[in-house]
Amino acid sequence: MRQSILVIEDDSDINDLLKRILTGAGYDVLQSYSGTEALLLLKTATPDLILSDLMLPGMSGEQVLAKLRGEPGSDIPVIILSAKDGITDKVGLLDGGADDYITKPFAPDEVLARVRVVLRRRKKSAPEEALVCKNIAVYPELRRVEVCGQELTLTAIEFDLLLTLMRSPGKVFSRERLYEEVWKDGYYGTDHTVNVHVSNLRKKLKEANPDEEYIQSVYGIGFRLVKS
Are 48 and 3 in contact (CB under 8 A)? Predict the structure, then answer.
């Protein structure tokens, strides 16, 4: 079954270019030219991935991302396309739930490579029983997380990070290992990317149960899931 990608880009030339690049690689493409139009489309369609510009008419890409991440169970991966290339912009978007960031102007090969990496993370695994540690339960096949019996909404990357840690409670994972396990790609010294997503995950777990410490930092190495 072909995977589908929603492109949100108000520049029709760029939108059509992305469609040609993606359809040429075997993907089905949905096109939207504003944030409002995209959110309406998402009420009836569930793409495997979203490529979104930031500078959109009416509703910005940041607002679209915030709306998506505010919906329970909405973990569709989002790759941001933007001419903004400052580290503050990128960190802010990763903090807001974006899964990756591509700077304009972009090369077709880079777009396809990043799309493949993100979609590989979303590929369904074989059916598994729930993984349980302390009062966290993770259902890999359903991509569902419960803390103290209450469902927790995570982004795709946050879920995959937690799943990796849950499979080996107490084991220390280096940032390099986490990057390779979750991003399914070679490590390029992107400690900050890992740190941002682990920080977001830790914050959500803490908000769900302030009395527990779930993820522990191991100085100079990485992170581990606290077993008890």
Answer: yes
- CA dist 14 and 17 (Å) reads 5
Closest CA to 117 of 160, 170, 174: 160
- Residues 166, 134: contact at Cβ < 8 Å? no
- Correct CATH for 131-225 of 2.40.50.140, 1.10.240.10, 3.40.50.300, 1.10.10.10: 1.10.10.10
Alpha helices in the chain (DSSP H): 12-24, 35-41, 61-69, 87-95, 108-122, 156-166, 175-183, 191-208
This prediction has a pTM of 0.58
* Spatial distance between the Cα atoms of 178 and 176, rounded to a whole number of angstroms: 6
CB 71 within 8 A of CB 43: no
pLDDT digits (tens, 9 = 90+) for 194-216: 999 999 999 999 999 998 999 99
Measured between alpha carbons, how far is 157 from 195 in angstroms, rounded to an integer?
12
Q: At 4, give phi and psi (nearest 5°).
A: -115, 145
What residues does each domain of the chain span? 4-122, 131-225
DSSP 108-171: HHHHHHHHHHHHHHHSPPPP-PPEEETTEEEETTTTEEEETTEE----HHHHHHHHHHHTSTT-
